[in-house]
Structures are given as C-alpha cells and as structure tokens.
Design brief:
- By secondary structure, the protein is α+β, with helices and mostly antiparallel strands.
- It has 2 domains: 8-61 and 151-329, no CATH class; 87-145 and 342-377, no CATH class.
- Helices cover 44% and strands 17% of the residues.
- It is built from 13 helices and 10 strands.
- It has helices spanning 8-11, 17-39, 45-51, 87-107, 111-119, 148-173, 191-206, 209-214, 248-259, 273-285, 295-302, 314-321, 364-377; strands at residues 69-72, 75-78, 123-128, 133-138, 176-183, 215-226, 232-242, 265-269, 310-313, 358-363.
- It has a 5-stranded antiparallel β-sheet, sandwiched between helices. A 3-stranded antiparallel β-sheet has the order 4-3-10, with helices on one face. A two-stranded antiparallel sheet has the order 1-2.
- The radius of gyration is 24 Å and the shape is globular.
Length: 380
Amino acid sequence: MGFVWDRTLVFGKKLNSASVVQLFFMKSLAKLDTYSRREIAGNSASTFINGFNSLNNSSTVSGSKPQSQTYVHTGVINSQQSKKKSRSETFKARQKTKRHLALLADEIYESDLSEKLLRCHSRLAFLTCGRHIHQVIPNYVCEFRLCPDCARRKSRKRVNDYLPVMTAFVKQNRVTPVHLVLTQTHKKETRKQSVKRLKSAFNNLIRRDFWKEHFKGGTWSLEFTKGKDGLHHTHLHIIGFRNRFFDIGLLRAEWLSVTGDSFNLRLDPITELSKGLLEVFKYVSKPLDTDRFMADDLKDFLELRNTHLFGSFGEFRSFKSNYVATDDDKVSLPDYSRYGNLVEGCVCPSDNCSRPLLEKRASGKGFVNYLKRVEDSAPG
C-alpha cells in the first residue's frame, strides 16, 4: 500500500496541486539557503539575501517578463533610469495630472472632487532671492489621495513623523530594517476585493509564529497596478524590523501557506533609513499611476474611500504610540525639511548665496514660468 499524504493536514486548509508543488519547491530552497548562509557568513549576509532576489523577478502571471526594477540597499532604482526632470517640468506635469483627474471626475458626476482638484495649488506664495526658491505655500489643498501635489506633501510629512521614531526603535531594539514586498496572484475581481484579499493574507502572516520570531513589527503601504492581463495587481510595501536572520525560502513558504497560491516576494536590507522611508512612503502618497486612468478606474478607486492604505503593526505600533523624543533621538531630516521656518528678509540659505529673500505670489502657471526663468539663469 503506497503512502498517501493528506495536504489538508499541513496548513489546516486544502491547497491545489500547483500550490503543493510550489510549497515543496520553497522547502527545498530553504534547505539550500541554510547551506548558502553558512558558506557566506559574516558581513556578506546582504549579498546572500540579494542573491535570491533574482528568483522573484518574474511576475505573478506565468510567462511574463522579469520586472525591470532592481532593489538595492538604499532603496529602489530603475535599471534603466530616465533623465531627471527639472523642477518646473515636474510641477507642470503635476498640474496636467490634476486636470486629467478633474475631467474624469466630471465624467462620473463627481463635480465637488473636480472643483477641489482644480483649486488645489492654483495660487502660491513663495520666497525667492531671484536665483533660488524656498518655502512654497499653496492657497488651497484638496487632500485627495491621488492628487500629486498633496501626495508629495503627505509623503514628506510622514517621513518627518516616522524617521525619528524608527531610528529610536532600531537603536533601542537592535533590529535591522528591511524592505519587504508581498504580491498575490491575479484574479478577476474589483480593486476593493483585491485589497481585501491581500490585507487578509498579510494579517494572517503576521499572526504566525515564524513572523513573530523574526520580526518586531513595522509599517505597510499599498500600491496598485494592472498586469498585462488587465487584472488588478495589488502589492504591499513593508518596512519590517528584523530581529533574527532567517532563510528567505521559509518566508516564501509561509506566504504561500496563507495565500494558497502565491509565493512571490522581495526582501532587501535598508542601510539608510531615510532613503528607505522615502521610497516606501511614496507608495502611500501615490498608490496609483494615474496618467493612463480612465473614468471607470477613478470610480473603482473611489470605492476605497474608507479603506486604510497605510498602517503600522506589531511592537513598533505600540512603541510609536508611546514614543517621547529625547536628545539622543535627534536625526538629520531630508533636505526639504531644513528651510521650513524662513520669512521675508532672511538671507537665502542656499550654498554660496547671501541675497535677501522676498515674498512673491503667482498662479500655478505663473509659478511654472518663474521657475523656468530661474532654471535658465542658473550657472552651468
């Protein structure tokens, strides 16, 4: 009589045949990971982790090409970087995006939203010495999740709020911050259903003994894209605080067990916390690429009005709620936070500039033109 294995006894629920094969593949990888870790023990542990990232480059849909992004220690960079836009070009692009969203809002009879988008950053006050521009203050902000201007403000505020807390948490608990990306297979479902499925799987994952043994909480944020099959591709970006080294194959196996059909993930160490935060929080502030948005896409997204797209969990969550800053917790905030308290008449804080700052006001279009003149007059 041959041996019969009941797969329902492994995870407490029935898995399909493909998932069972994937699970054994993951278990085999875990054993290989253990051997590899011993071979390269020491300061090259990050190389070990990155070595297995190549296994994750394929999409959740079979037959698709590897992703074009490569995750590195200090964040995420595109393997083929495009030319960096000037400040005026970036501001102009954000205005164009808002006009596009406003038109779509009108199509689905969301006139209030359309009006808010068009008013947002329509007039601005700023300080300038004629060569540099500082402290741009809009007359009105819409606070809509997909507004690129409000997204930028929200992302920076979150970095300023979380960076000191995370730095203190890392120092006090001696943990390693990592950037973890969890994905799931594509299904024919609404965006809201896709988000609910992914968040449910993640909540099950962080309740598992494996997770509790190796992580001390962190933050998560959602990002939405669409696959080449036209189906929703929702994924979680997580800054997790790892307190023990583990084999990444085991984490894949755990993720497969809670989803039932997906083991794709990415894991990279973060050596510079501020850059890691900026990278992850940009998905919080702008979870969607709106340039190709249609009216139905906006309508679908508006169903998530009462859905949290960002959150914290585990020991870090309770640490943040009780955190009181001390002198030892002082950190260097990103460059954009340095000049937050300037007034008219102050000396321009830019390098090699001692001109006084003057306050100016302009419309959105006027501000773009002024930016362009400042850029054209810049040396070099």
